[in-house]
Every structure is written in structure tokens, then in C-alpha cells.
Design brief:
With about 375 residues, this protein is an alpha+beta fold. The protein folds into 2 domains: about 110 residues, Rieske [2Fe-2S] iron-sulphur domain (Rieske Iron-sulfur Protein, 3-layer Sandwich); about 200 residues, Naphthalene 1,2-dioxygenase Alpha Subunit, Chain A, domain 1, CATH 3.90.380.10. Helices cover about 25% and strands about 30% of the residues. It is built from 9 helices and 17 strands. The strands form 3 sheets. A 7-stranded antiparallel beta sheet has the order 1-10-9-4-3-2-5, with no helix packed on it. Strand 14 and strand 15 form a beta hairpin. The chain is globular, with a radius of gyration of 23 Å. The chain starts with 13 loop residues before the first helix and ends with a helix. The mean pLDDT is about 90.
């Protein structure tokens, strides 16, 4: 008699290759979760704005005269022309099509010949606002008006991140590194969310930044929390001061489902990942590096170059090979290595992640 199959198996290949599932994610998952938009330093002054896209929707963030940061759908309420493009600064928002003009709070201010329209009321017209949160200077939006706040989605992350990066409120972007990958966004996120492959595939990271044997990843709400110790100082690939603060010698990462991660390297160096799906089998991964006030830093530049030439390049080869393999007629979803003790050689984080993926695709 055969024993029951209690193995936890990986997702079917269709979750990564089926255009119908991808479309459902765009319309459902990405429209109902917190998505990274940009950094507060992009909209410091009254009237500063930048546009971006989430779940196929064009949006823009703008700083109001009251200091409040708001996000609106990038569409005029008259006849649907897009209002802004790129980034800039304005005193009022003027539609390029018929010059309908909106206040920075979204309310309609004026438009040509509107007084001729019987029964027309400016007070009834307003741009459609999107739920927005500023999380340690990082701007996130959620297209779901009923979305719970980020602290409910990601419990404890705000406090932990503030402890690991004591100067986080002073940080500004120093540089962004864009990497295009020929894989479904979930393949890339999964690769980021386990270190089972690190010792074999990331020698610089595993010997010059962290101690892989101490690496662990645990679910924390809809967050995956990575923790490990830094490598011995004589083997570190860049200098750190262990006496600077309590977490100077630690590495930690907070992956915020579905597509953003705060990552703190030893020495309290903050960098970020965010994933933008560009097609069923393509995505862009953006790496952000930050310093106090965005001041130039040779150490951070060298670390970004090292990371791009080693870990990032190594991961591109891995994820693109996986995507090709998902089309193989010989692939049967294998069992995840779920160790009850967790640790670096366990895929318990992937088990949690794939459950979120299944729920997001099947909703």
C-alpha cells in the first residue's frame, strides 16, 4: 500500500507561462496590493509630480500646497486625455486637450466656457484619488480603496527597518540599476526569496558579505524576513564599523509581497529591489542604492558595481534558465525542500510565497 503524498510541490508551469493567469494578476493581484511608486525626494516641493504605471493604469503623485502627497489616476474627467507625463512641477494641473484645470488636491478649478453649461457644478468634478502611503520616505500606492494599511500587511517591518537603518529618514537615492530579465516576474521573486542556491551560485555574496550557514527566511504577515550575520571582517568585500550601532554587523531583508524588498547590508547600507512585470515572460528588476541626502559615496558605488557584476548577473542566468525549463515537456513540479528547522537549506519561504502566488492568480 502506498503512503499518502504529503510532499509540498512547486507550482505548475502554467502559473509562469499562461497569458490568462498573467492578465488575472494584472487586473486582480497588482490592483489590490501595495505597489512601490517612487521616493519622496522626487516630490519635495509644492507642485512637484511624477507619473508611473501600476497594473496597466497610468497614475501620478503630486505634492499639494498643504504638504500632502496625493496620487491620482492620470486621466482628465472631461474626455479622458492623460494629464501629465514624466515628472515636473506645476501650480495647477492643466489638461493638454481642452485646458480643463485642476487644483493640486484634484478638484476642478476651471475650463473654457463651462459657465455656458446649464446645471454644471465644478464641485462635482474631481480627479480620482488612489490610496497612498509614505513608508520611511518610500511611496506606495494601492488601487483598492478598501485596502488595509501597510502596517497591517507587513507587521513590525516599519519598526525593524528603522532600527536597522537609524538614518533612514535622511536617505535619498544615489543611483538606480535597471536589469531586464527574460522570465515571469514570479520566477525572479522566488529566486530572491530563498538562499538554498546561494553557496553554489553566489560566491562573492556568500564569502564576502554574509555567512550563508546563518541565513534564514521567515514569513511575517505578507512579508518574508531574511536574516543572517555578516562575513568575518577580514573577508568582507567592503569596510564596515561594527561599533557604529547594534545592527552594524547584521544583514536583513524585508520582502513586501508582491514586488518590493528593503535590503540592509552590513554597515547599515540600505538598498532596494522592486519588480515590474513587462509581459508574461519578461520583467524589469530595479536596484536602488541610497545615502544620506543622496551624497556621493565611493563605497556605495563600488558595492553597487560589485553587486551588478556578481549576484545580479548570476541571478539573470538562473532565472532565465528556469523560465526556459518551464516550457519543457519533461518538467514535473518537484517537491519543495521544507525543513521543519528552517535554515538556509530549506524552502519554507517558497512554500509561503507560492501560496500567495496561487491565491493571487486564482482569485
Amino acid at each position: 500500500m502506498n503512503a499518502p503524498d504529503t510532499l509540498v510541490r512547486s507550482l505548475d508551469a502554467r502559473y509562469y507561462t499562461d497569458p490568462a493567469i498573467y492578465q488575472k494578476e494584472q487586473q486582480g493581484l497588482f490592483a489590490k496590493t501595495w505597489q512601490f511608486a517612487g521616493h519622496e525626494s522626487q516630490v519635495e516641493r509644492t507642485g512637484d509630480y511624477f507619473s508611473f504605471e501600476i497594473a496597466g493604469q497610468s497614475l501620478f503623485c503630486i505634492r499639494g500646497r498643504d504638504g500632502v502627497l496625493r496620487t491620482f489616476y492620470n486621466v482628465c474627467q472631461h474626455r479622458a486625455h492623460e494629464l501629465v507625463s514624466g515628472s515636473g512641477n506645476c501650480k495647477v494641473i492643466v489638461c493638454p486637450y481642452h485646458a480643463w484645470t485642476y487644483e493640486l488636491t484634484g478638484g476642478l478649478r476651471a475650463g473654457p466656457n463651462l459657465k455656458a453649461v446649464a446645471g454644471f457644478s465644478r464641485q462635482d468634478i474631481c480627479l480620482t484619488e488612489v490610496k497612498t502611503e509614505v513608508f520611511w520616505g518610500f511611496i506606495f500606492v494601492n488601487l483598492d480603496p478598501q485596502a488595509e494599511p501597510m502596517d497591517s500587511w507587513f507587521p513590525g517591518v516599519r519598526e525593524e527597518l528603522g532600527a536597522f537603518v537609524p538614518h533612514i529618514e535622511q536617505l535619498k537615492p544615489l543611483e538606480w540599476v535597471q536589469v531586464s530579465e527574460k522570465c515571469n516576474w514570479k520566477v525572479s521573486v522566488e529566486n530572491y526569496s530563498e538562499c538554498y542556491h546561494c553557496a553554489l551560485n553566489h560566491p562573492t555574496f556568500a564569502t564576502g558579505v554574509v555567512k550563508p550557514e546563518t541565513y534564514d527566511i521567515r514569513p511575517q504577515g505578507h512579508c518574508l524576513r531574511h536574516t543572517t550575520e555578516c562575513q568575518n571582517l577580514d573577508r568582507m568585500s567592503y569596510p564596515i564599523d561594527l561599533e557604529a550601532n547594534a545592527h552594524a554587523g547584521d544583514y536583513s531583508s524585508w520582502f513586501l509581497w508582491p514586488a518590493f524588498s528593503f535590503q540592509v547590508y552590513p554597515g547599515n547600507v540600505l538598498n532596494t529591489y522592486h519588480w515590474r512585470s513587462t509581459g508574461v515572460e519578461t520583467c524589469d528588476v530595479w536596484r536602488g542604492w541610497y545615502t544620506i541626502d543622496g551624497v556621493d559615496s565611493e563605497v556605495i558605488h563600488r558595492l553597487a558595481v560589485q553587486d551588478r557584476a556578481t549576484t545580479v548577473e548570476e541571478d539573470i542566468l538562473l532565472v532565465e534558465s528556469v523560465q526556459r525549463g518551464l516550457h519543457s515537456r519533461g518538467y514535473r513540479p518537484g517537491p519543495l525542500v521544507v525543513d521543519p528547522k528552517c535554515g538556509v537549506n530549506s524552502e519554507h519561504s517558497i512554500m509561503a510565497l507560492q501560496q500567495w502566488m496561487r491565491e493571487g492568480a486564482d482569485a
